[in-house]
Specification:
Elements (H helix, E strand, L loop, with lengths): L13 E6 L3 E7 L2 H6 L7 E3 L2 H11 L3 E5 L1 H7 L8 E4 L6 H12 L15 E8 L5 E8 L9 H5 L1 E7 L6 H16 L3 E5 L3 H16 L5 E5 H8 L4 H9 L4 E5 L5 E5 L2 E5 L13 H14 L4 H15 L13 H9 L1
Parallel strand pairs: 1-5, 1-8, 2-6, 3-7, 8-9, 9-10, 10-11
Antiparallel strand pairs: 2-4, 6-7, 11-12, 12-13
């Protein structure tokens, strides 16, 4: 890779480019007994083999299909804010792939990665929502396992590169992301990284810690459990101190206990912002990142940025699924809440 061949624009074309799994969420509401009968661990996110995905999908019965994927969900929440966004991910040449691609286009997100044409199916995440609002997620990543060479100029042309930790699960996406981080840093752009899930950290802890400790991450998104898994410390403050010492900005969420941000040794906190009854916690972390990224792009003060994350997360958990329903206006909600 010749970094010298990449032109670096003073004013980037995009505010954010995200690299993530291109997944279609398959969502249904079932009770705890169904979750137990399927041998699933309630409330956790687990990778599954394609054949297991087919069997579970059949057992779930009638479901809703909606575009998903962690980083893609974060970008989808940017609609209506005037944020210039692009996505890098891999779908198959099938019905779910076309659904995903059309949804990105409808939201004004640039998505130019060609689909795989070898029969590999688009990835799917099977989500079971129990009556208490918790979600049990089982993902067969399908085509997302085979991310080809990225558009290097696209990365250099984006002010922020946003990457999900799930990309470390297989070799091609991991190599592509590491290349993208190198390009972004060469171009003087910011790198934002989300730890994604505790199981993901357990599998790739050494890689994640090396990435963070080497100063490759400018903005780190994590929840309380993920920080504990990353640092090996059950003491939240100690885990925060470790992470904050290695990144420019740490954003750490604590569910109903709100969230904190640490930048330059200064801590800021915000409470949770419930918008209504909790229906489904799917996408809460993704939309929290949405609110934070909007605030950063808009140049808001950090306490306001943090609160914007809480507002976005508070809204998404009042509905089924990880993306705001058609007609929901997050920008208007933000304006009303922030005053």
């Amino acid at each position: 890779m010749l970094l010298e061949d990449i032109a670096v624009l003073t004013s980037p074309l995009y505010d954010i480019v995200a690299i993530g799994n291109a997944i279609v969420d398959v969502i249904c509401s079932r009770d705890d007994e169904f979750v137990a009968a399927q041998g699933l661990e309630k409330g956790l996110m687990r990778p599954i083999a394609p054949d297991r995905g087919v069997a579970l999908h059949e057992a779930m019965g009638a479901c809703e299909e909606v575009s998903g994927g962690s980083a893609a969900n974060t970008l989808a929440g940017l609609t209506g804010f005037g944020v210039r966004a692009a996505f890098v991910g891999q779908v198959g040449d099938d019905r779910l792939g076309r659904l995903f691609r059309q949804d990105m286009a409808d939201r004004g997100i640039v998505f130019d990665t060609p689909p795989l044409t070898d029969g590999t199916p688009t990835g799917r995440c099977l989500i079971i929502v129990t009556p208490d609002g918790h979600r049990t997620m089982n993902t067969a990543i399908g085509a997302s396992e085979f991310l080809p060479q990225i558009d290097r100029q696209l990365i250099a042309d984006s002010a922020v590169l946003f990457v999900e930790g799930y990309m470390w699960a297989t070799e091609q996406p991991r190599v592509a992301v590491c290349e993208a981080i190198t390009i972004a840093r060469h171009a003087g752009r910011k790198v934002a990284f989300t730890l994604s899930a505790e199981w993901c950290i357990r599998q790739h802890r050494a890689d994640f810690r090396a990435l963070i400790e080497s100063g490759q991450v400018d903005i780190l998104f994590a929840n309380e459990g993920e920080l504990a898994e990353l640092t090996g410390s059950a003491d939240f403050d100690a885990a925060v101190d470790w992470a904050a010492a290695h990144v420019g900005l740490l954003i750490a969420t604590r569910g109903a206990d709100g969230a904190i941000a640490v930048e330059g040794g200064m801590r800021h906190t915000t409470p949770a912002e419930p918008i209504g009854p909790v229906v489904d916690t799917t996408g809460a972390g993704d939309l929290f990142a949405t609110g934070v990224l909007i605030g950063l792009v808009q140049g808001r003060p950090l306490p306001t940025v943090l609160r914007m994350g809480s507002i976005a997360a508070g809204k998404i958990i009042t509905q089924i699924g990880p993306r705001l329903a058609t007609g929901e206006d997050l920008a208007a909600l933000m304006a009303a809440r922030l005053g």
